[in-house]
Each structure stands twice: as C-alpha cells, then as structure tokens.
Design brief:
7-stranded antiparallel sheet; 19 helices; 34% helix; alpha+beta; 23 strands
Length: 567
C-alpha cells in the first residue's frame, strides 16, 4: 500500500473516531480488526492484515508506530507482555518481554547511602531505573513462531511515518506540557520542545529520522541489531553517563537478554475460560482471583453500576490485591503459589469474607493451599499508569492481546537514537525486606520486576475465541481489565459500552470513583458501607474485541485517542 493510500486510511479512521466520540456503538467487521490507542497505529495494523499478515505481524507494525506517536506510553526501549491465540490449535500462548535488572544490580539499588528508600522521582529520572528492554526480542520470538509476512516489511509503516512526520496529538501535547522532567536531558528536551523551549503544539508535524534509522537497522538485522553493536553501545553510554543518577546496565545485559514463552494462567468464569499473563506479571493472576471470588455471587442479576454490584467488586479486589502484595513476583526467582491462588476452594473461602452490608476495610492476605513456610513481607511498590494496550484478530481467527510500557510517562526521560528508555526497575520494591522478612518483589540481578499488565483472552467452552481485552493504567490495570470481562460475560454489554463504563476500583485501600461520570453518585452509599472513597480521574485505555456470530465487534476507550477498525 502506497503512502498516500495509507494517509487516506488514517484520515478516514480519525474522522470516523471523532464523529463517533461519545457513541455507544461498537465497530463491526467480518474479516479482521485492530483496536489500539492511536489511529496511526491502527492504520499500520490494518495495512499488514490487508496484505495477508497474521495477528503477530500486525503487532510488530502496531508497536513500532505506537513507539513513535505515543512515546510517553511504550516503545522499543521498554517491555511488553503478549497473549496469542492460535485458532487452529485452539490454544493460548503467552510471551514475556519484560525488562530485566542488570547483572550488577543489588537489593539496595533504590536505597540511599543511609539505607533509606530513595524518593520515587529521584529514582525514576536517569539511568538507575533503566532495565534491559525486552519488546523487540519478544516480538522477534513471536514472529519466528507465528509470523506470515517477512520481518523487514513490518517496520515500513513506522519508518514512513517517522520520516514523513505526524501531527502532535492533543494528548501528547498535554503530557509534554505537564511533565516536569523532560528538560533534564538535552536529547529529550530538544525532541519534545520547540526551539523556544515550549512544548510542541497540537498539530505540529513531528519527524523522527533517528527512530527511522534505528528501525531500518532492526528490520535488516533483526533484534540482534538492537541488542549488540552500535545501538547497544549508545544505550549503555546514555544509562551509565546519566548526570546525577547513572545506572548499571551494560552491553552484557543487552546481549544476554532473552524473551520467554510461558504458560498462561486461566480461570473458569461463567462457563468461559479467562486467560491472562502469569508471573512476572501479577495481572493475570489477580484478574483471575477477582473473577474467581465473584464466581460465587449472582453478578448477572445485579444492575451494572449499582452500589450492590460495585460493593462486591470492590471487596473481591481487596482480597485479590492483598494476596498480590505478598505472593506475586518473578517466578524464576521466588516461589509463587499459582495453583493455590486460583484454587476454587480457596477463592470460595476468600469470597465468604465478603458481606453485602459492610466493607471489610483493608483486607489481609490469605493462606493458599500451596503455601510453604517461607515468610515474606508485603510489597507496596508503585507502578505508574503510562502504558498502552492493543487487541488484534486476524482473518484466520488468530488473536493478539498485548500490553506494552516504558512505565511512567516518558520512562526515564532518556532518549537514544530516537526512542525513550524505560524506568521499569522502579516497579521493584525499593525496600528489599520489612520486619526482617524478604519482599518477594525485591531487586535481584537478572530479575524481572513485578507488573500489573494484564493482556487477556477469553475462550468459549469449546475453546474458540470470544474476547480479547486489556488496558494500561499502572496497578489499576487489573481493575480495568476485570471490569471489561465482567461487563461482557455478566451483563452482555457490547465492547464499546464495556470499555466506556464508569470506573469504580480498589487496590485494597481507598475506593476510587471516576470523576465526571455516574460513578460519583455512588460516593455516599459506599461510604455508608464503610468504604473510604475519593473521586479522581481514572484514565484507562481499554481496547477490546468480541467475536460473536461470525462477526467482530470492537471498542476503543474514549478516555484516550484510540479507535477500532478493520474489514
């Protein structure tokens, strides 16, 4: 497809998205679909699928464009988790592209000389927070196993857009304007600001020839071109040379990085099989626990958004997040009681702690049946909400659910060869132990920090595809994703209605109600049940595709700039 044709598609999709803003109707197609956070990225995915590509092929194109047009959220300097549904085998495979801690890292990485935890932003900005990027190795591994089109061509949409330029969106402009750290490093400051030092205005045509050159190298040489040689040397030089806050990453860490395939974690819910990402992500496990607890309650008989339904969801989330804090981390380093946490009897016992009339307050962790005698301390690590999620179904019925991140908005604020470096190491616990007990999510060499990313695929009882969903949002991702699954399975909402629902969430602390929505009306009733409630912005980015009756129905979160489109 030539450049003019592609630009036309982008303009048509963007116009359709603007016209549909606030509408409840899902996008309907028959052959294939992409739902992602930016129209340019969707157009790239559609282009690949039109050419006969697989869902994995389209994922490469979507990710490389997202790294250009919303660099604050994801990119090749970060990491990702992907679930892939193989329609021929009716199986779900998960791919782990999470960043790793440098070999030189120690549990005290984020402690100051006095042994106290560093202030969060002092740790984030600079080289100390940068983990070994994983997304390109993960995409290469998935493409090797399930790709249909040649690897080099999948980078062409992003290369064309980087060289030709794209208009700065309102969201990107607003994030540049409000970020306090973008001017700390010269390359980053120059890219995101005008010559006068002002944030790039909405509509500014932004070109990134350095990013195009990086992608050309990876297209020609594979991921090896990123993990060794000149690009790797420049990444290490930036990380180790960061003023005030240098990091430990070296060329050996990049050369040694491997993406992994892992079994998904799945839970039965309302007759369907809900599959998600296992450790080092806590997303699939915690979503599964919330749904497994709610399996014992008649959610379908309650009105969506009612105080009765929201109270039950909040309490189930409290219980799941309590166990998340204590048990979940990189299972290559600590024993995570996977089967025990999803055991039906255990979840039923946890569910019996919920009463309809009164909140339990802050929930305590439970004792899953697999637990051994290892004593651990709970982890309160922060996880920032700047991430992206996209969902894809191809013409063969294969699907991708991929959540991708550089962690906080603009990551470490360090830019190399046209892309930003992540700050994912701050997803580790800053304190390696508490009360003399180790924290499961402490820093260790080569370890992957715990994540909340929760790419999710739901299968029908016959293991055919039903739903592809997921969201950005830091540690709130789990709430957002579980709510999207409930909306479809319990209340039969279409994807657009499901992703647009007002948010009511808990991470085992205060209850957050989404400001400016009907959720605000629940404040008094929830407080009467003993919940501590606050009203705040909750910027999810759910992108969801439902398969039903031989058709695809897509929804894009109205809180961001995404669309769903296909043929």
């Amino acid at each position: 497809m030539n450049l003019l044709r592609r630009i036309s598609i982008v303009l048509v999709l963007a116009t359709a998205h603007a016209a549909a803003a606030g509408a409840d109707d899902s996008v309907e197609t028959r052959a294939f679909m992409v739902a992602a956070a930016n129209p340019h990225a969707v157009a790239a995915g559609v282009e690949v699928l039109e050419a006969g590509g697989s869902a994995i092929d389209a994922a490469v194109a979507v990710q490389t464009v997202l790294g250009l047009v919303e660099p604050q959220s994801s990119g090749i300097g970060g990491g990702a988790f992907m679930l892939y549904f193989d329609s021929a085998e009716r199986t779900v495979i998960s791919f782990d592209g999470r960043e790793t801690a440098p070999a030189a890292a120690t549990p005290g990485l984020f402690l100051d000389p006095a042994g106290a935890k560093m202030k969060f932003w002092d740790a984030v900005v600079g080289g100390r927070s940068v983990g070994t990027p994983g997304v390109l190795r993960m995409l290469e591994l998935a493409h090797r196993e399930h790709g249909k089109l040649p690897w080099p061509g999948l980078f062409e949409p992003a290369i064309r857009l980087a060289e030709g330029g794209f208009a700065v969106s309102p969201r990107l402009n607003a994030l540049i304007e409000t970020d306090k750290h973008l001017k700390r490093y010269a390359a980053t400051s120059a890219y995101f600001h005008t010559d006068a030092g002002e944030p790039l205005p909405v509509g500014h045509m932004l070109k990134n020839p350095a990013y195009a050159a990086t992608l050309r190298a990876v297209a020609a040489g594979g991921a090896d071109a990123f993990y060794a040689g000149a690009i790797a040397r420049d990444i290490v030089a930036a990380v180790r040379g960061a003023k005030d806050n240098p990091g430990l990453l070296d060329e050996g860490d990049l050369a040694a990085y491997r993406a992994k395939t892992r079994p998904p974690v799945c839970v039965a819910y309302r007759g369907s099989n809900v599959c998600g990402m296992g450790p080092p992500s806590s997303g699939g496990l915690t979503v599964g626990m919330i749904l497994g607890i709610l399996q014992g309650f008649p959610m379908a008989g309650l009105r969506p958004g009612s105080v009765e339904a929201e109270h039950l969801f909040i309490e189930a989330a409290r219980l799941a997040y309590a166990d998340r804090a204590l048990y979940m981390a990189d299972s290559d380093f600590v024993r995570v009681p996977l089967a025990g946490l999803l055991d039906r009897g255990y979840l039923a016992r946890r569910g019996r702690l919920i009463t309809a009339a009164r909140s339990m307050g802050k929930a305590a962790s439970g004792t899953p049946p697999e637990r051994k005698t290892e004593r651990r301390a709970p982890d309160g690590a922060l996880e920032m909400p700047s991430t992206s999620h996209f969902s894809i179904v191809d013409a063969r019925g294969n699907a991708v659910s991929m959540t991708t991140s550089v962690e906080s908005a603009f990551g470490s604020r360090m830019m190399v060869r046209g892309f930003l470096l992540n700050n994912q190491l701050t997803d580790f616990s800053f304190a390696p132990e508490a009360d003399g007990k180790p924290v499961a999510n402490r820093v260790e060499p080569g370890k992957r920090p715990r994540s909340s990313m929760a790419p999710t695929i739901v299968l029908n009882p016959d293991r055919t595809l039903r739903l592809v969903t997921g969201s950005p949002g830091g540690s709130r991702i789990i709430n957002y994703t579980a709510r999207s699954v409930m909306a479809v399975l319990d209340w039969k909402l279409d994807p657009q209605s499901a992703v647009a629902r007002p948010h009511v969430i808990s991470r085992n602390g205060t209850v957050d109600l989404e400001e400016g929505t009907d959720a605000e009306s629940l404040k008094a009733a929830l407080e009467a049940r003993g919940h501590e409630v606050r009203v705040r912005a909750l910027t999810s980015g759910l992108h969801t595709i439902l398969v039903s009756g031989g058709k695809l129905y897509g929804g894009a979160d109205p809180r961001r700039e995404g669309i769903a489109a296909g043929r």
